[in-house]
Design goal:
- The protein contains twelve helices and twelve strands.
- The protein has about 325 residues and is of the alpha/beta class.
- The protein folds into two domains: about 200 residues, D-Maltodextrin-Binding Protein, domain 2, CATH 3.40.190; about 130 residues, D-Maltodextrin-Binding Protein, domain 2.
- The protein starts with a strand and ends in a 5-residue tail after the last helix.
Length: about 325
């Protein structure tokens, strides 16, 4: 759960999921013994990004497609369908019911957008495979007077209208919560945040670098790339403890007095009415792809936490996380 306060459900849920993964839990589709060869792609596969080029799902897919291409008998292409906080991409996939050639790179915004009253429910799609989790970074320009997370909270308490946030791709999603959860934990009314919505993290970061926005929460992987290029100063991460490598000196929100953790997850979501054979194929194929050394290297370099689950376990996970997300959004006045 993206949490604020001392009694965090996030840690308990992550522990439950880690236990599932450690036990080698797989979905009912795999354990049922349905052979993957019952179905396989017969024409090009579309991996659909929920945002424009440069955004989170787009970046992940362009990495993953190079690895997945070694495991799929037909071409695999990345297709961008930005808009509506991901709704355009999910609705596009659902225009092809029962067709296993379409998979969306989904994120927690699938839940938060629906709870907020726009975008489809995960129950109207076919969540196929949970890939990994990641955390959120909070970034400013290197010349910004906001040098730490504590500075940001102090600035907001003095004059919330003086600080603008670039949010990709919708309010209530993980990027928004990357800053909002900490501000709320510090006693700030986050409804006073000055937010500007962007179609991708790439667009939001471009606005930051151009001086049009003061603060941009991004995936840790994207933020780390900007840090390596000396384009931003990262002032906080939403992880429970510090991350390593180039981010070793970046403090967590908790270290800066805001008891907040925010996690993001990435899953492949297909259109409604996918068949058990299609799910079995993708579960087994994606699992093999994530065992490739190239993918393990990407996991380490991008600070992604490997946690692969099949269809059945992913559905159970989404049911729990949907309840957690709804509780948070209702608390901050974004749930309808």
């Amino acid at each position: 759960m993206n949490t604020v306060g001392g009694n965090s459900g996030h840690g308990r849920r992550h522990a439950r999921l880690a236990a599932l993964a450690a036990a080698g839990a797989t979905s009912a589709v795999i354990s049922s013994g349905a052979p993957a060869q019952d179905w396989k792609p017969t024409r090009p596969v579309e991996l659909i990004a929920t945002n424009a080029p440069g955004g989170g799902s787009d970046r992940i897919l362009r990495i993953f497609v190079k690895i997945l291409g070694n495991h799929v008998p037909t071409p695999v292409n990345v297709v961008n369908r930005p808009g509506g906080g991901g709704a355009v991409a999910y609705n596009y996939a659902n225009q092809h019911p029962g067709d296993g050639h379409y998979l969306v790179m989904g994120s927690r915004s699938l839940l938060t957008n629906n709870i907020a009253g726009h975008g489809p429910s995960y129950l109207t799609l076919t969540p196929a495979v949970h890939l990994f989790t990641e955390f959120i970074s909070v970034n400013v320009k290197p010349v910004s007077p906001i040098r730490t997370g504590r500075d940001l909270i102090a600035f907001m308490k003095r004059d919330p209208s003086a600080v603008s946030y670039g949010i990709a791709t919708s309010l209530g999603g993980p990027n928004h919560q990357g800053a909002a959860a900490a501000l709320k934990a510090a006693g700030f009314d986050i409804r006073k945040m000055k937010n500007v919505i962007f179609p991708s993290g790439g667009a939001a970061s471009t606005a930051l670098l151009g001086g049009h926005i003061d603060v941009v929460p991004l995936s840790v992987a994207f933020g780390a790339q900007l840090v390596r290029n000396k384009q931003v100063r990262m002032i906080a991460v939403t992880s429970p403890r510090r991350l390593g490598g180039v981010l070793a000196d970046v403090p967590t929100w908790k270290e800066q007095g805001a008891n907040a953790e925010v996690s993001q997850w990435r899953i492949f979501v297909g259109p409604r009415d996918m068949t058990p054979a299609q799910l079995s194929y993708w579960e087994q194929t994606l699992r093999k792809a994530t065992e490739a050394p190239e993918w393990k290297k990407e996991l380490a370099e991008n600070y992604w936490r490997h946690l692969i689950m099949g269809h059945s376990d992913t559905m159970k996970f989404l049911e729990r996380d949907n309840a957690d997300a709804k509780a948070f959004l209702m608390e901050i006045g974004l749930a309808r």
